[in-house]
């Protein structure tokens, strides 16, 4: 019997990829190269430092750990400035309704986000109170596809992982859910999210009754 849903944030509830792209592109240009939207796809669901390493590899640039910390901090400052204007208008279609329908069905909700900015974004979107618990990148050691973040969300809810359903848009995120032993709903393209148990275009297609067993 399903007892909880664990949602990813970026790409599921709101589209922050465009803001990350702007800030990463500025960083790349500071270092003398460009990234494009196709490359940006590879950064979805990937944590800050892992993203930076992928970008540096893409540009053929080698930095010291100290330089990396400085560049990552500057990228984040720029990103934080870009998300400062976010509001409920930045919720993806059906996101609020999906969260409300899960709670309305008597189930719990958790957030499992690779972003350290997740709590601030939830506050801007006006949906902090729709989550029973939040796990962000500050609280875990291993990034997706490691199951740690989804397992921690289940533990904080006090629900067994196999009674949870995870919702993710990134390949690494779906892998993280499956590695945690949960049912996985993918958001996006079924040909890309091959490990997902079900795939929908977006939360506007989410129907809680399709996924929970009723007695
Ligand atoms: C993920 C995003 O949710 O969080 C990635 O999909 C992002 O694009 C990562 O790099 C880390 O975010 P932050 O806010 O901690 O830099
Ligand atoms: Mg995502």
TrEMBL record:
Pfam families: Hydrolase (PF00702). The keyword Lipid metabolism does not apply. Binds 2 magnesium ions per subunit. GO terms for molecular function: beta-phosphoglucomutase activity; magnesium ion binding; sugar-phosphatase activity. Keywords: Magnesium, Metal-binding. Substrate binds at residues 8-10, 24, 43-48, 51, 75, 113-117, 144. The keyword Ion transport does not apply. It comes from the Bacteria. One of its GO terms (biological process) is carbohydrate metabolic process. Its cofactor is Mg(2+). SUPFAM superfamilies: HAD-like. The active site is at residues 8, 10. Gene3D superfamilies: HAD superfamily/HAD-like, Putative phosphatase, domain 2. The record marks 113, 144 as: Important for catalytic activity and assists the phosphoryl transfer reaction to Asp8 by balancing charge and orienting the reacting groups. Mg(2+) binds at residues 8, 10, 168-169. Belongs to the HAD-like hydrolase superfamily. CbbY/CbbZ/Gph/YieH family. PANTHER family: FRUCTOSE-1-PHOSPHATE PHOSPHATASE, GLYCEROL-1-PHOSPHATE PHOSPHOHYDROLASE 1-RELATED. This is Beta-phosphoglucomutase.
């Amino acid at each position: 019997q399903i007892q909880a849903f664990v949602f990813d944030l970026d790409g599921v509830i709101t589209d922050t990829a465009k803001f990350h792209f702007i800030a990463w592109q500025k960083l790349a240009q500071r270092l003398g190269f460009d990234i494009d939207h196709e490359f940006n796809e590879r950064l979805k669901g990937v944590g800050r430092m892992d993203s930076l390493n992928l970008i540096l590899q893409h540009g053929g640039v080698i930095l010291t750990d100290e330089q990396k910390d400085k560049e990552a901090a500057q990228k984040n400052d720029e990103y934080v400035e870009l998300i400062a204007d976010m509001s409920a208008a930045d919720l993806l279609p059906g996101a609020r309704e999906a969260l409300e329908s899960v709670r309305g069905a008597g189930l719990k909700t958790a957030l499992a986000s690779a972003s350290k900015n997740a709590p601030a974004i939830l506050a801007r979107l006006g949906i902090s109170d729709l989550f029973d618990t939040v796990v962000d990148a500050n609280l875990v050691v291993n990034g997706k596809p490691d199951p740690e973040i989804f397992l921690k969300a289940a533990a904080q809810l006090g629900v067994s992982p196999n009674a949870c359903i995870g919702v993710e848009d990134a390949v690494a995120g779906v892998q993280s859910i499956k590695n945690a032993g949960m049912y996985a709903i993918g958001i996006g393209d079924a040909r890309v999210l091959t490990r997902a148990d079900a795939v929908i275009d977006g939360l506007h297609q989410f129907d809680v009754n399709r996924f929970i067993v009723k007695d």
